[in-house]
Amino acid sequence: MRMTLSRAAFPTDFRFGAATAAYQIEGTRLGTCGRSHWDKFARDGGTFNNENGDIACAHYDLWPQDLDLVKRAGFDAYRFSIAWPRIQPEGRGKPLAEGLDFYDRLVDGMLERDLEPFATLYHWDLPLALADRDGWRNRDTALRFADYSAHVCQRLGDRLASVATINEPWCVAWLSHYEGAHAPGLKDISATAKAMHNILVAHAESVKVMRELKQPNLGIVLNMEYSNPATDKEADRHAAQIHDGIYNRWFVEALRKGRYPSDIMEYLDPYMPEGWQDDMDDISAPLDWLGINYYTRSNHADNGTGAFPFSRTVTGPLPKSSMGWETYPDGLEFFLKRTRSDYTGDLPLYVTENGTARHDRLTEDGVDDAGRCGYFNQHLEAVHRAMEDGVPVKGYFAWSLLDNFEWAFGYRERFGLVHVDYETQKRTPKASYHMFRQFLED
Ligand code: IFM
Please, which residues bridge with residue 122 across strands? Predict the structure, then answer.
């Protein structure tokens, strides 16, 4: 399959890239890496078959061939994350030379291949020692994060094209502390409110130290999921609105307007950490860009309890990924436009993740992931429509370069442009990889 659009339809300085994250691909048993709360969560039954990131895609050893794959596809940039426990195994103190050396080689490897390094400082692998001290419920974790950010910048900063502080604060806070689906697996509204705020304090403190270090091009990556009312009934529309507030407006409103959405604060206010108001100026300090991760929409019906957050998700009618996520490209166009009009104006936006899970079949002829090809094609069209409307989108990153550890779903769900055989670690580019290569070389 070919993309409908050609690369020439995008500006010459538009960046195409592929994205990954440390815990999902590196293999925490390779090299020296401290334990994170994901190791504990997996051991305690939080993941499919108790699977974990011990070996994952063995990227710690195989990174040169993985970067070659990024390059051969014709991408301009590679989005990766740094594992905090490789730099500070206990989440504090002197950084570990072996960890910094690894990322040093990796970043140099990108530059040797003419790939721009887009780094993310936190993609969920919180050092276990900090998780044991209440993790993101504890404001001190945010200060530790700023310290870690400084170590990374001091060593790698001169070669990074951009730095994102946090990946997907909604997952860090709500999914992990309210829904219990990610580490640390809590279901506690008070913990949730604290994490919803402290993760933004971490962002703010990290930006502060990086600005002092003159680190350029700082941003944050938010995930957004289109909140669709299951019916036109007032109660269902209200349920969708509350979902939208928690998921899609909470973080961007704080970052850009220095306040939390009033329709959500009506319920979360009693649980907020003391003195939260004093942090809002720092949280809303200027950014250089904002990243949006977009995958799907969800459908919301009133849950009948009359209690916050009012919604229960119901199955929708659209085609779905192997994880049941509906394909809804219009949602990406919607968020790019709304983000620009309501929050960011001229600030550069990046689509920092977009992709779909499929139960791919590896045959002698490779992997014919036609469903994924169609998904990418439709979503690139949506990005293009938003750009035609004037949204300053500066780049697009496919999730993910490789099949990898899909968190609570373990290795069962595959998102890669490249198939990974976890027994042999053999990489096989799928049809979607070839589609991107053709698109990028045209
Ligand atoms: O695999 C994740 C990634 O770590 C963060 N964004 C969503 C992806 C798919 O679930």
Answer: 166
Q: What is the CATH number of domain 7-441?
A: 3.20.20.80
For 360-390, the pLDDT digits (tens) are 999 999 999 999 999 999 999 999 999 999 9
Domain ranges of the chain: 7-441
Q: Is 168 a catalytic residue?
A: yes
- Alpha-carbon span 210 to 218, nearest angstrom: 8
CA nearest neighbour of 192 among 175, 173, 172: 173
Is the pTM of the predicted complex or chain greater than 0.70? yes
pLDDT at 442: 79
List 16's β-bridge partners, or say none: 396
> Please, are residues 246 and 309 in contact by the beta-carbon 8 Å criterion?
yes
Q: Which is the closest atom of ligand 1 to the Cα of 407? A: 1
Task: Indicate if ligand 1 lies below 6 Å from the C-beta of 215.
Answer: no
Residues of the chain with confidence (pLDDT) below 70: none
Q: How far apart (Å, rounded) are the C-alpha atoms in residues 296 and 302?
A: 20
In this predicted structure, what is the pLDDT of residue 387? 98
Ligand 1 atom with least separation from CA of 400:
1
Q: Is 381 tagged catalytic?
A: no
Q: Give the chain as a 3 state SS string.
A: CCCCCCHHHCCCCCEEEEECCHHHHCCCCCCCCCCEHHHHHHHCCCCHHHCCCCCCCCHHHHHHHHHHHHHHCCCCEEEEECCHHHHCCCCCCCCCHHHHHHHHHHHHHHHHCCCEEEEEEECCCCEHHHHCCCHHHCHHHHHHHHHHHHHHHHHHHHHCCEEEEEECHHHHHHHHHCCCCCCCCCCCHHHHHHHHHHHHHHHHHHHHHHHHCCCCCEEEEEEEEEEEECCCCHHHHHHHHHHHHHHHHHHHHHHHHCCCCHHHHHHHHHHCCCCHHHHHHHHCCCCCEEEEEEEEEEEEEECCCCCCCCEEEECCCCCECCCCCECCHHHHHHHHHHHHHHHHCCCCEEEEECCCCECCCEECCEECCHHHHHHHHHHHHHHHHHHHCCCCEEEEEEECCECCCCHHHCCCCECCCEEEECCCCEEEECHHHHHHHHHHHC
Distance, CA 189 to ligand 1 centroid (Å)? 23
Is the torsion defined by CA of 64, 65, 70, 76 positive or negative? positive
